[in-house]
Amino acid sequence: METYRLKIKDLKGIKEETDRLKSKGKKIVFTNGCFDILHPGHTRYLYAARRLGDYLVVAVNSDRSTRAIKGPSRPINSQEARTELLAALGFVDGVVIFDEEDPFKVIELLMPNILVKGGDWAEDEIIGSDVVKKGGGEVKRIPYILGHATTDIIKKIRAS
User: Fold this and answer.
1) Count of Cβ atoms closer than 10 Å to residue 57 Cβ
2) What is the Rg, in whole angstroms, of the alpha carbon atoms belonging to the chain?
3) Hey, which of 10, 13, 27, 143 would disulfide with 113, CB 3.0 to 4.6 Å?
4) Quick check: is 12 in a domain?
5) 3-state helix, strand, coil in the chain (%, to 5)
6) d(C-alpha 160, C-alpha 85), whole Å
7) What domain count does the chain have?
8) 0.85 surpassed by pTM
9) How far is residue 160's CA from residue 153's CA, in Å, rounded to a whole number?
């Protein structure tokens, strides 16, 4: 097995890893999304998120939850493909799949030091922000990268 695939963990595994790192004073950064077709907007966003702390957890919507959010024609790539691509990125430290339509339960369990979302999200709309702040953590918004969106890529493919 490729060693980068070891970054893909179940919820229990990612909790154990983040707890171990927190006990050593490391800052855990958390973000989430579907990451259906990985593009430069995603990689720039994730790179910026990782620079905010010591360990970046990316929680990925399952195929079922992606369909519930994005519609019956999504995801384009399976949850296994999406998590493998994310794990292959050197600046992503841990990847976990979640089946709910929002990451609240995962955020509440992991209690990251820093919760990150894109600048297209208003801070009061970021799920889990209240829990993270109450626990002494921070919420950060990374500027949205124009010209890179999965929906636009899908439209371009379908038009050709």
Assistant:
1) 26
2) 15
3) 27
4) yes
5) 45, 20, 35
6) 25
7) 1
8) yes
9) 11
Structural domain boundaries enclosing 109: 3-117
The single-letter DSSP state of residue 123 is G
Closest to 95 (Cα-Cα) out of 2, 16, 3, 11? 11
State whether residue 132 is helix, strand or coil: helix
What confidence tens digit (pLDDT) does each residue in 95-118 have?
999 999 999 999 999 999 999 998
Tokens 């019956």: give the residue: 72
Amino acid at 22: K
What is the tens place of the pLDDT at every residue in 127-141? 999 999 999 999 999
Give burial (CB, 10 Å; 0-12/13-18/19+) of 76.
middle
Residue 17 lies in a domain: yes
Strand partners, 116: 140
Handedness of CA 16, 19, 25, 27 (dihedral sign): positive
Would 48 be classed as within a structural domain?
Answer: yes
| Sheet with strand 138-142: strands edge to edge | 94-98, 55-61, 28-33, 114-118, 138-142
**pLDDT band per the 50, 70, 90 thresholds, residue 147:** low
User: How many whole angstroms separate alpha carbon 72 and alpha carbon 141?
Assistant: 29
C-alpha closest to that of 129 among 149, 95, 102: 102
Classify residue 82: in a domain, yes or no.
yes
